[in-house]
Every structure is written in C-alpha cells, then in structure tokens.
Amino acid sequence: MNKIYKTSLIAVLSVVSAMAIVGNAAATGGATGMMRPLYGTADTAVQKGAADTTAVTNPADLGTELSEPTRGSIVDEVVWVVGDEPILRSDIEATRLQGSAEGHDFGANADCTIPEQIAVQKLFLHQAALDSIEVSESEITQGVDQQMNYFIQMAGGSKERLEQYRHETISQMRQELHDEYKNSMLVQRMRQKLVEDISVSPAEVRSYFKNMPADSLPKIPTTVEVEILTQTPKPTPDEVNRIKNELREFTDRINKGEISFATLASLYSEDTGSARQGGEIGYTGRGMLDPAFAAAAFNLTDPKKVSKIVESEFGYHIIQLIDRRGDRINCRHILLKPRIGQPAIDKAESRLDSIGNDIRAGKFTFEDAVGYLSDDKDTKNNNGLLANSTQTERTSRFHMKDLPSEIAKVVDTMKVGEVSRAFQMVNERGKVVCLICKLKSRVDEHRATIAEDFQDMKNIVLAKRKEDTLQQWVEKKIKDTYVRMLPEYKNCKFQYEGWVKDQ
Predict the structure, then answer these.
(1) How far is it, in rounded angstroms, from Cα 425 to Cα 153?
(2) Which DSSP category does 214 fall into?
(3) pLDDT per residue as tens digits for the range 205-258
(4) How many CA atoms lie within 13 A of 477 on its CB side?
(5) Are 220 and 445 a contacting pair, CB within 8 Å?
(6) pLDDT bucket at 98, cuts 50 / 70 / 90
(7) Of the ranges 1-5, 348-352, 360-364, which one carries the lowest mean pLDDT score?
(8) Cα(277)–Cα(265) distance, rounded to whole angstroms?
(9) Do 66 and 484 touch, CB atoms closer than 8 A?
(10) In angstroms, rounded to a whole number, what is the distance separating the alpha carbons of residues 439 and 163?
C-alpha cells in the first residue's frame, strides 16, 4: 500500500509544470522540493512563471509567503499547503468541474468551500496513514470496475465512444479512478473509526425532540421496500473461448520462458489494481477472495507453475503462487473479462419482460418467480427483497436517495404492488445485470413521530452527535497542522476554525 505519510513527510511544494503554448509548441516548467516535518512553523513558498524552467534546489531561494501570481504568467500554482501536502489551483478547478458535472452545488462561496474540503480530506488521509487504515486492492478493483461499467453504459455501451468523449484511454481512466477510490475509502474508514464508539440512548432521543415545535420536527423522506428479480447476460461461447485461448497462450509463453508472468499481468490484466504490481495481490486470507479463486490459489504449491484457468465472479484468471504464510497467501494473477454484447442484454431483458407479464397475469407471484428464476444470490432466498445495511442497522426500508440510482428512477413512478418493465444496471461487483422490480411498500414524506419513526429520529440524533465529534476533531487537527494559503483565501468564511494562522 502506498503510505501517504509516516512520522515526517517530504514537502513537495511544486507547481505542476507551467505550460505556455505558442503555436504548436509547449514549454514545461520544473518542480521544487524540500524537507519539512508535518507539524511546524517553517515558512516555504514556491512559485514559478511559465518562462522559468529551472528547479529551485536551495531552500534559501524560497520566499516566506505564497505570493500572488503574475497575471497571465502562471497556468498552475500552489495555493494552499496543509502539513506537507500542496493544494494546486488545478486541484480546485478539477473538483469544481467534476462537482458541476455531477450536479453538486458548492454554494456561492465555492472559491473558499472547495479548497477547504480538499484540505479536510488531507487531514483525514494523514490520520488514516498514522492509524494504518487500509483498503485492499480487491475492494478498489471492485469499486473501479463498477464505476467504469457505469461510464461505459452512459456512453451507449461503447468503450471507444467513452475514450473519444473523455480524451483518455480506458487504462488512463482506470488509473485515475484507482487512486481516487482508494483515497475516498481511506477517508470514509477514518471518519468511521473516529465515531465508532458514539451511541445515543432512547432517553437522549426523546430529550432531543421533547420541546421541539411540531412544525420544526424533521421530515422523514419517502421510504420504500423493493424486491428484485435479476438475470445476468451471458457472454457468447465464442467470446469465452477467445478469453480462454488468450489465457492459454499466456501460460504457454510463461512456461517456455519467453516472458514473465508479472510482465504479462502488467500489460494485459483487467484487474488494474494488481496489474500495476505485476499481478501481485499481497498476502490475503481465503475469506477475502472469491471462493473459486481462493480454491485454485490455495491449491498451488510450486511458484514456477501456472494454475489452470479459473472462472470467478469477476471473469477468468490464471494464477501463480509467490509465497504462503500460515493461512494467508500471496500470488499473482491475470484477469480477463468477456465482453457482453447487446444481443445478450436484449435477450435477458426480453425474458424478464415475459416473466413480468406472467406475474401480472396471475400465473405466479413475484416472490415465487424470484425463488426459481433470479440469479442474485444476495436476495434470492429472501423473496428478492433488497437489504439496506448501515453501521447501525440492517433493514429493508430505503430512502429513495439510498437506492441504486437505476432502481430509484424506476421505482419513483411505480405504485405499491406494481411490477416494472425490464431494465439494466451495474451491480456492486461491476457487472451488467438486467432486472425487473416490484414495489413492496411506500411511505410518503411526513413529519417524524416517536411512535412511528423512532429509528429515523435516533439516527438523526446519532448523526448530529457524530457530526459534532468530527467537527471538534478537525478543528483540533487544524491547530496542530502547518497551514499556508495565498492571501486571496484569508478573508474566506470557512466551516472550520483555525485555517488562517498568525503569520
């Protein structure tokens, strides 16, 4: 795992290469760096004009303020420094553009809100490193796969169209998503750790709402229960054979000594997280792996041998043993995924629509159909009922915003007991699935009451307690952390106190 911090850090206060485009030419600037502990008061400034291509290597050459740029001379620059981590103007603009594309409103004070949010994430990432919080490569791969499949579906199912739209290759997009997803999971787990011991009693919940006027009681959003019946489109036999033949060719080349397993994994594996490490997954217990993959991997005894082709929930693999330590194993693998063609999707949706028509005609119930026909193992044995699992409870009730977006869009217009037409979505394993759903129950938005909505009201009080705890933690962390910013940010009204130091 790439540790973000240890006890001290290399302060890379560098301006991303300043680029001045003249005609068809581009000039690229250099970078600067110096050592500084995370907690300290040393002054450092870095700023480079587009014409300056000489790296500053002597700390004495650095000023004591992050000075304002000469207008028109700098394309990118360091605008904040948090600990030893720089925040670039391009970071802020990239966040602004991404938020805009996703419909996020940063408010009227976006120029202050965005850098503060980035700075807060850096505080959590630093603490996550100190506390040895980790995210496994398999978790990252699953998250990246799901996001990439969603992007491809939004591009009409065409990778080529997505690459043309984004001006990036699929590999480049996966690389960017890998680090973003990893950091977001680290932040999420660090936040969870900070508040994991917080709880509230029923008496505290009643006390919190006791004297609150009726018209001030929180509104409980529309809540639904949804059942699903899924069919996963299958690749054609020719496509499966293509994948297997490619893996057999890899095995043959490795056995002949033409090329190493690690090199092939780096070049061809569709598990991008491990591909960057030559296919190496790191020491992992059996329970963290797909059962079929684990069975094949743990049966390997000779590091020079390559496994037979293994089919898992993620695709097809070949595996090579590296080492075994007790009940954990370290191995390399190459993953290839069969492409799902539109005819297979159309076929699955057509079958689901036929099943839906029979249900509406009263030939059998939705729940009976799930038991016989659904291939979703998480819901098949529970009449297709989706489960909403949180840190505090497991329930079948969802607020609309908590449902997968594809399901929420369909359910929003349905009546209780109604069965939908077939549609498709990307599941949590990153696979395209087709499904129909039934709206089991719906409770429209209303004012909360202790009798009917105690759990929701408890969650509100608990969330408030956790929010206050995190607010206090961030403000304490800010006090102990070196922070510098350009003068243009010093008059901002920030959410957290203490960013502007006496300088």
Answers:
(1) 9
(2) G
(3) 999 998 889 889 999 899 999 999 999 999 999 999 999 999 999 999 999 999
(4) 20
(5) yes
(6) confident
(7) 1-5
(8) 8
(9) yes
(10) 37
Candidates 270, 276, 277, 272; CA nearest to 250 is 270
3-state SS string over 392-420?
CCEECCEEHHHCCHHHHHHHCCCCCCCEC
Residue reference for tokens 């959590």? 124
Apex CA 171: angle with CA 166 and CA 173, to 5°?
Answer: 40
Is the separation of the CB atoms in 299 and 163 below 8 Å? Answer: no
Higher pLDDT, 68 or 435: 435
**What was the pLDDT predicted at 503?**
54
Q: What is the dihedral of CA 95, 98, 104, 108, to 10 degrees?
A: 50
Q: What is the band of 68 on the pLDDT scale with cuts at 50, 70, 90?
A: very low
Look up residue 473 and give its two tokens: 């933690």
Amino acid at 239: E
Single pTM value for the model: 0.53
Q: How many angstroms separate the CA atoms of 412 and 445, rounded?
A: 13
Strand segments, DSSP code E, in 64-103 are: 78-82, 85-88
CA 302, CA 322: separation in Å to the nearest integer? 9
> Dihedral of CA 251/253/256/262: which sign?
negative
Spatial CA neighbour of 302 closest among 317, 318, 320: 320
Q: Can you point out the beta strands (E) in 396-481?
A: 398-399, 423-426, 432-443, 446-447
CA separation, residue 281 to residues 133, 267, 331, 376, 491 (Å):
17, 16, 6, 27, 47
Query: Angle formed by the axes of helices 110-130 and 89-101, to 10°?
Result: 100
148 half-sphere exposure, CB direction, 13 A CA radius: 28
10 residue type, one letter: I
What residue has token string 């006090």?
479
Check whether 311 has a pLDDT greater than 90. yes
Arithmetic mean of pLDDT, 171-182? 88
User: Percent of the chain having pLDDT more than 70?
Assistant: 84
> Rounded to whole angstroms, how far apart are CA atoms 356 and 360?
6
Mean pLDDT for the chain? 82
Gap between the Cα atoms of 466 and 169, Å rounded = 41
Question: Which residues in 37-126 belong to E strands, given as ranges?
Answer: 78-82, 85-88
Query: Per DSSP, what are the bridge partners of residue 21?
Result: 26
Q: Give the C-alpha separation, 285 to 275, whole Å.
A: 20
Selected residue with higher pLDDT from 391 and 130 = 130
